[in-house]
Amino acid sequence: MSDQIELASPPFDSVSSVRFSPTSPSHLLVSSWDTTVRFYDIATNEQKSKYDHRAAVLACCFSDATHGYSGGLDTSVRELDLESEKINHLGQHSDAISSMNYSRDQNVLITGSWDRTVRFWDPRASNQQQSSHDLPERVYNMDLVNHILVVAMASRLFHIYDIRKMDSPAQTRESSLKFMTRALACMSDGQGYATGSVEGRIAVEYFDPSPQAQEKKYAFKCHRQTIDDVDHVWPVNALAFHPIYNTFASAGSDGTVSIWDHKSKKRLRQYPKYHSPVPSIAFNCDGTKLAVGVSYTWEEGEEGAKTAERPAVFVKNIGEEVKPKGWTG
Fold first, then answer.
1. What is the distance between the alpha carbons of residues 95 and 77, in angstroms, rounded to a whole number?
2. Does residue 217 contact residue 292 with C-beta atoms inside 8 Å?
3. Cβ atoms within 10 A of the Cβ of 96, count?
4. Distance from C-alpha of 112 to C-alpha of 158, rounded to nearest angstrom
């Protein structure tokens, strides 16, 4: 498949997160259950550096071209210097760190944890943990667009915050989907977000609480297949919005990645199936590439692990298929 490359030296265990640099279209971080974060240059297909942790890493992100962050089961918040390859410990949560985002406007790292807090960190300050905010449930996913932070929690709860005033959420919502939230991504245009559940469904939501805006929200079935008259349903593991066209990609445990236009409510493309589930996807900053983490996600337990393929990370070249119909730009 010449429209994509497979990265050399992938992680040895399941991929937890793939994240691109906000400024360099060819720089990628990959966190893994093998207790590492790996930093790749996809233009040359080389692993530039590797950062070891004490337990599985669940989340990573960039702040700028030369700094990354990571967190996971060992509860430590780490800053990764991508040039010197040094690791700086910023502090701890009291349980696993499940997600993280960096606000370039506010220059803060935001981490979410199973300890039911969201915490703000400033790596340059002497007191690096700036604040901690209690939540009613464990944090499963977070995403950030402009000043809006969406936090997806256990019990299908959602909090929407303005990160400039974190004393209370701007909105609290319950998921439109009946099953556990597995995926979350904010729209590139800042109008709303999409969520995916373990039961093969995606919901498209809008921030504006007015009835007119709320009328536009909808949900649909996906990542399903009928095999020999039996309906198979897979989790939606990851979602990512295109930075220019605001269409979005979804990835599932069925090993497929699809592109959707939520305005026309249509699927624009389904890419050829991968050999294993897809736990994480990300578009790069100029929207020309899609990173696809491919690895076993334990739906079949120990039995499935015995026959699972080795984890892989693919980088797809993105073409016209991500453009909405009638795009004028």
1. 11
2. no
3. 19
4. 13
For 280-304, write each residue's pLDDT tens digit. Answer: 999 999 999 999 999 977 667 777 6
CA gyration radius for the chain?
Answer: 19
Determine what percent of the chain is predicted with pLDDT higher than 90: 90
Task: Name the band, by pLDDT with cuts 50, 70 and 90, for residue 1.
Answer: very low
3-state secondary structure 170-213: CEEEECCCCCCEEEEEECCCCCEEEEEECCCEEEEEECCCCHHH
Rounded Cα gap, residues 119 and 161, in angstroms: 13
Q: Is 223 helix (H, G, I), strand (E, B) or coil?
A: coil
Q: List, in order, residues 6 or more apart from 274 with CB less than 8 Å away.
A: 255, 256, 257, 292, 294, 312, 314
Spell out the domain ranges in the chain: 4-317
At the second CATH level, the architecture of 4-317 is 7 Propeller (2.130)
Rounded to the nearest 10 degrees, how much is the dihedral formed by the CA atoms of 262, 267, 273, 277? 30
Structure token digits, residue 181:
């939230």
**How far is Cα 119 from Cα 121, in angstroms, rounded to an integer?**
7
Arithmetic mean of pLDDT over the chain: 95
Is a pLDDT exceeding 80 seen at residue 157? yes
Q: How many CB atoms lie within 10 A of CB 146?
A: 12
Question: Up-side HSE of residue 214: CA atoms within 13 Å toward CB?
Answer: 5
Residues in the chain: 329
What secondary structure does DSSP assign to 70-101, as a single string? EEETT-EEEEEETTT--EEEEEE-SS-EEEEE
Name beta bridge partners: 258.
250, 270
pTM for the complete prediction? 0.96
Structure confidence by residue, pLDDT tens digits, 216-262? 999 999 999 888 999 899 999 999 999 999 999 999 999 999 999 99
Task: Give me the residues paired with residue 196 across strands.
Answer: 183, 202
